[in-house]
Amino acid sequence: MFGLGTLTRIAREVRQDLTAAQERDPAARGIGRAEILLTYPGVHALLAHRVAHALHESGIPFLPHALANLSRTVTGIEIHPAAKIGEALLIDHGAGVVIGETAEIGDNVTLYQGVTLGGTGFARGKRHPTVKDNVVVGSGAKLLGSITVGSCSKVGANSVVIHDVPPNTTVVGNPGHPVKISGRKPEGPDADWAHLPDPVADAIRSLSSRIRELESELAEVTGREPQPAAEVRPLRGAGQDPAAG
User: Fold this and answer.
1) CATH class of 4-195
2) How far is CA 8 from the centre of its chain?
3) Which sequence spans correspond to the domains of the chain?
C-alpha cells in the first residue's frame, strides 16, 4: 500500500540522492541541499521516479506512467515506473538518459548524460541491464539487453555494452570490451575518461609495426628501400588534459 511508510522511505531515498550529488558532483559541493533539490533535473527525475515506482508497486493504474511522462517532459530524463533503482543514484546533467522497464540499478551508481539502459528485441520478461553497486557509466554509453555490469566497474563514454561486465572492470569501445589502465584497475568514484586506453589506436599501431617489419624483410629480398612508414599518434599530446579550459 501507498502509505506513510512509503512516504518515509521516499524521503530517505531523496536525502541520499541529494548527498550523492554533493559528494560526487564537483559543481554541487559549494551549494546547499535546498538549491540542489530545486535546480538539479537529475534529482527531480529521481524524486518523480521514486513516487511513480511506489505507485506502480501498489498497483495503482495510470498515475505512475502519467508522472513518468511528465518528468520526462520537464527533465529530459526517461525512467520507466517499473525500473528498480537503489540508493544514492547520481544522474549528472541527465539530458537524454533512458532507463528501461526491467532495468535494475544498485547503490551509489553514477550515470552521465545520454546514458541508455535499453532492451533488445520484443521479448517479454527481463530484457534490460542490471547495474550493480558503485558503477560509473560515462556520457552517451549504451547498455543493451539483459546483461549485468559488476560492482565497482566503469563504462567509458559512448561505449556500447552488450555482454556481461565482471566486477572491478573498465569497459570501452563499440562493442564494449574490458581494458586496463596502466596495468591496474581504476580506483575511486571519479570518471577520469581523459586517461582511458585507446584500443583502436593500439590495434592500428600494432598493425603498422607489423607492416614495417614485413616491408623491411621484403626490402632485404628485393633490394628496394621501403616507403616511409605511417605514424600512429594519439589525438592529444602527452600531458595534455582535454578537460582543461
Assistant:
1) mainly beta
2) 29
3) 4-195, 198-233
